[in-house]
Design a protein that fits this description.
A: 2 domains; globular; B: alpha+beta; Aldehyde Oxidoreductase, domain 3; seven-stranded mixed beta sheet; five-stranded mixed beta sheet; 21 helices
Chain lengths: ~160, ~775
């Protein structure tokens, strides 16, 4: 089995590990780094539960190899949450019931965070478009869209 | 006394921070991973399974087949004593001589990583002799169909019928007969967290501990005890965070049983995390029906007779321990339940196929019964040239009629169907919809709207499983105790998969005792720490668990007031508990805090009157026994646009008017309605487990099995009927009715009716779900001739 050494930062922390070349990024952050907030819902890039930020850009960690994250900066839901980046999103999800079982939620929060980093004035359709790569089986999406819209409004109020 | 408050879920802060504790996030020291060799053939005789090469691979601890497990785990059969003629063939944890569906587990690999296990699966050498395949329900009952089991030469698992006396005579004299064949695709629930468990057997003390992504831990305790020859009290099942379930995590699965058996054999913890492909092939499947139905009307336009003939494609076995005939049984109960129809007959045949295992998915049978009934009602109104809502109102059962026995036999308590219809029509006037429809039609597109009246049977009593011989509880319990801090700890047998029952039970306790919700800590889903209870199925858990919580909290409250009265030398009736303080009932002045009282009771009980032993704990359990179920009802509305060139159906709006009685937490009730409707919309338009004629699953990924996303599901308008005044009495337990089935029950019917309303100007009809573009175009093409 081929192994590779990788050097990257995860949630701001330098990480140096040797991994099997075939190891996916999501398995790496979950099994090696115990960052289990990033979930595996389908393992083929459809459901979005595994979404993370790589150099600030949202990416599906189940269809990406750990080796290809070499030299990059990975941020997971734990990192975003701990530095407060998803706080007002989390508060809005709480107000609107934007989650039930919570399994898809970290991926959706990462996507919403990426959207609001682009614009704090998304349209409702724009929010739906931004979340189209995620499957939530519990909520019917409307409470999630409400929550993201509410969080966006909060960020407008807070100023640029 | 319980108020209705939109309280957020108690687990949400953790889940939003990425600190969920799903089975896949947990580890037990020494734990190994598991993967299965699953049958790639839908029907075959097993010749050989040679594991030698696989066993020698690095990182592999064991590779097991049926022969290795047979002395540890019993075979099982999904029987129910109420159905003497039900054929329940024997099933084994790992396939023994035959495989009968793609995905059936043939061998189990234990190793140090899932990847290593999957490598070893590839190295297992096996050979089978393929057998002819039954891949659809009509084929199953055709004259020359291959046979799955010697015990069922006609492939029929169970045939059921309910009928009044004069159905045929009434149809013979009916003025108008409306008939249609309704086709429903096979579905599965697709919880986003796939099935998973960690089984740890300790051979030194014979104790089995299972961390299980499951709805019914107590039922699993009974099942594992029965099938693994272990004393049930040596088995602990714990459900941590569960990432959705929808009925899919309600059953015993052969693969999960094999994992537990292997843990016993090896004496070490094993973790099995199903991946999505094996979930699609091996999770419970449902909804696969072909229904021929007809409705008879007299010359005055009144309904006189209904006849429904259902063919239900189950899998190759009757599901243990609940059977696979629940959908047919629900069909026999709730078809046409909202309406006065003097004569009715319903037949259902559950037939074996070489498709995946079939059983219960959210709404069990309701969506089928509603789509058939409501499809016929709208078709009848169209044929008779009468208004659809007026036609329904004319035949709806009235609350004023009291409990009524339907022509199919069951008796239903009075339900507020008409009030729901009126509320929906008031919120969204038909005239507005007609204006919208005319405008769209004028532009050359197709548009329509449709309704569906539905019944929702929740909180089942013990008659079916209890009398049927299945060890499945319809009760739930609640244990409450006052801590020295003045907080209350709750251990409840309900289970949480996101629907919010855990939070609602905590609310009931907080409100009933008189403390803040933040002063309640609750544990659920742990057989070791709760009473034996039913867990989650059939929208039952707040009806039973909420009632039990109320009773336990009332008992604790009475004891607290009695103890406080003894200390304060007054009558307990002069005191109240508000916000964690013991106050004078008259003026709400604080006499002491709950914490002060608890400290006396826990640490200085000698200050109490001589001999008084404080009872700071209370337990209660409850299960409805007065009726087969509690029913809710409602009406859904769907409006769609249909592109005549592409066949694409776009959902324009969706609404529901609903009556579920007392609402503990509107955030969760609305969540259940919207989430259930989204699943029903998926059923109507996209979701389909496609198998080819060799029983090969062609939609085994989420790229192929289309679960709707935020782009497809519209915002959903909800109209609640207010609950009756009876809920205000503080001494009366809240009477909760479930709400989890409503969405899936009514949404598909409403969408199909909207589509048919849109197609009607072209003379086209469609009674097949999902209404894919291809099927819509075929319907339009057939109408053109």
């Amino acid at each position: 089995m081929t192994h590779v050494s990788i050097d990257l930062t995860v949630n701001g922390r330098a990480v140096r590990e040797t991994v099997q070349a075939r190891m996916t990024l999501v398995d790496f952050v979950r099994e090696r780094l115990d960052l289990t907030g990033t979930h595996v819902g389908c393992a083929h890039g459809v459901c979005g539960a595994c979404l993370v930020l790589i150099d600030g850009v949202a990416a599906r960690s189940c269809v990406m190899l750990a080796a290809s994250a070499d030299g990059r900066a990975v941020e997971t839901i734990e990192g975003l949450s701990e530095r407060g980046a998803t706080r007002n999103l989390a508060e809005a999800f709480t107000r609107h019931g934007g989650l039930q079982c919570g399994f898809c939620t970290p991926g959706i929060l990462v996507a919403a965070h990426a959207l609001l980093a682009e614009t704090t004035r998304p349209t409702r359709d724009g929010i739906r478009e931004a979340l189209a790569g995620h499957i939530c089986r519990c909520t019917g999406y409307e409470p999630i869209v409400d929550a993201v819209a509410d969080a966006a409004a909060g960020r407008q109020d807070a100023g640029p | 006394m319980t108020g209705s408050r939109a309280v957020p879920g108690l687990r949400w802060p953790r889940l939003l921070a990425g600190r969920g504790r799903y089975v896949g996030d947990l580890a037990v020291r020494g734990m190994r991973e598991v993967a299965f060799l699953r049958s790639p053939f839908a029907h075959a005789t097993i010749r050989t399974i040679d594991c030698a090469a696989a066993r020698g691979l690095p990182g592999i601890d064991a590779v097991l087949t049926h022969a290795d497990l047979a002395h540890v785990v019993r075979p099982f059969r999904g029987t129910n004593a109420l159905f003497e003629t039900l054929v329940a063939p024997e099933q084994t944890a790992l396939a023994s001589s035959h495989v009968r569906h793609v995905g059936e587990p043939m061998a189990l690999v234990v190793g140090d990583s899932r990847a290593a296990c999957e490598d070893a699966v590839e190295a297992i050498e096996w050979d089978v002799d393929p057998l002819p395949v039954v891949s659809d329900p009509e084929r199953a009952v055709s004259a020359d169909a291959p046979c799955l089991h010697v015990a069922a030469p006609d492939n029929v698992c169970l045939a059921m019928e309910a009928s009044s006396a004069g159905v045929d005579e009434t149809f013979a004299t009916a003025e108008t007969i409306i008939d249609a064949t309704f086709r429903f695709a096979r579905h599965t629930g697709v919880p986003m967290e796939p099935r998973s468990l960690i089984a740890s057997f300790d051979p030194s003390d014979g104790a089995l501990s299972v961390l299980h992504s499951h709805q019914c831990p107590a039922a699993m305790q009974q099942a594992f005890a029965a099938l693994l020859d272990l004393p049930a009290h040596r088995i602990d099942i714990t459900c941590p965070d569960v990432g959705g379930a929808f009925g899919i995590k309600q059953q015993l699965y052969a693969d999960e049983l094999a994992v537990v058996a292997t843990s016993i054999l090896l004496g070490r913890p094993l973790r099995f995390l199903a991946d999505r492909l094996e979930s699609m092939a091996s999770d419970i499947q449902a909804r696969h029906h072909v229904v021929y139905a007809r409705l008879g009307a007299a010359s005055d336009g009144s309904l006189v007779a209904l006849d429904v003939d259902d063919l239900l494609a189950i899998g190759p076995y009757s599901q243990y321990p609940r059977t696979s005939v629940g959908e047919g049984r629900a069909l026999l109960t709730c078809t046409a339940a909202p309406y006065r129809v003097p004569e009715a007959r319903a037949r259902s045949r559950a037939v074996f196929t070489n498709l995946g295992m079939a059983g219960h998915y959210r709404g069990v049978g309701h969506p089928i019964a509603t789509a058939v009934t409501e499809g016929l009602m709208e078709e009848a109104a169209r044929r008779l040239g009468v208004d659809r809502l007026a036609f329904r109102r004319r035949h709806l059962r009235s609350v004023d009629d009291g409990p009524q026995r339907t022509a199919l036999g069951p008796t239903f308590e009075p339900l507020r169907y008409a009030a729901c219809l009126d509320a929906l029509a008031a919120a969204i006037p038909t005239s507005d919809l007609e204006v919208w429809r005319d405008r769209v039609r004028a532009s050359g597109a197709l548009a329509g709207f449709g309704y569906a009246v539905f019944i929702e049977m929740t909180a089942r009593g013990p008659a079916f499983y209890g009398d049927g011989g299945a060890e499945i509880s319809t009760r739930d319990g609640c244990f409450v105790r006052l801590e020295p801090s003045g907080a209350v700890r709750v251990n409840a047998s309900v289970t949480e998969q996101g629907q919010g029952v855990e939070t609602a039970v905590a609310q009931v306790v907080a409100d009933t005792v008189g403390i803040a919700l933040s002063d309640v800590a609750i544990v659920t889903g742990e057989t070791a720490n709760t009473t034996h209870g039913g867990g989650t199925w059939a929208s039952r858990s707040l009806a039973s668990g909420g009632h039990a919580a109320f009773q336990a909290a009332r008992t604790l409250r009475a004891e607290i007031l009695s103890l406080a009265a003894a200390l304060l030398q007054c009558g307990p009736e002069t005191l109240d508990i508000i916000g964690g303080s013991i106050v004078d009932r008259d003026d709400s002045n604080e006499r002491m805090t709950l914490k002060q009282l608890a400290a006396v009771c826990h640490f200085r009980p000698h200050q109490l009157p001589a001999g008084r032993q404080p009872a700071l704990e209370a337990v209660a359990s409850f299960g409805p026994t007065d009726a087969p179920f509690r029913a809710g009802c409602g009406v859904q509305l769907s409006a769609v646009e249909v592109d005549p060139d592409t066949g694409v159906v776009r959902l324009v709006r969706h609404a529901v008017a609903h009556d579920c009685g007392a609402i503990a937490n509107p955030l969760f009730v609305d969540g259940q309605l919207k989430g259930g409707i989204a699943q029903g919309l998926g059923a109507a338009l996209w979701e389909e487990l496609v198998y080819d004629d060799q029983g090969q699953l062609l939609s085994g990924s989420l790229a192929d099995y289309k679960v709707p996303t935020a782009l497809e599901i519209p915002d959903i308008q909800i109209v609640h009927l207010p609950a009756g005044a009876a809920e205000e009495d503080p001494d009366t337990p809240p009477r909760f009715v479930g709400v989890g089935e409503a969405g899936t029950a009514g949404a598909p019917a409403a969408v199909m009716n909207a589509i048919n309303d849109a197609l009607a100007p072209r003379g086209a009809k469609l009674f097949q779900m999902p209404a894919t573009p291809e099927r819509v175009l075929q319907a339009l093409g057939a109408a053109r001739g």
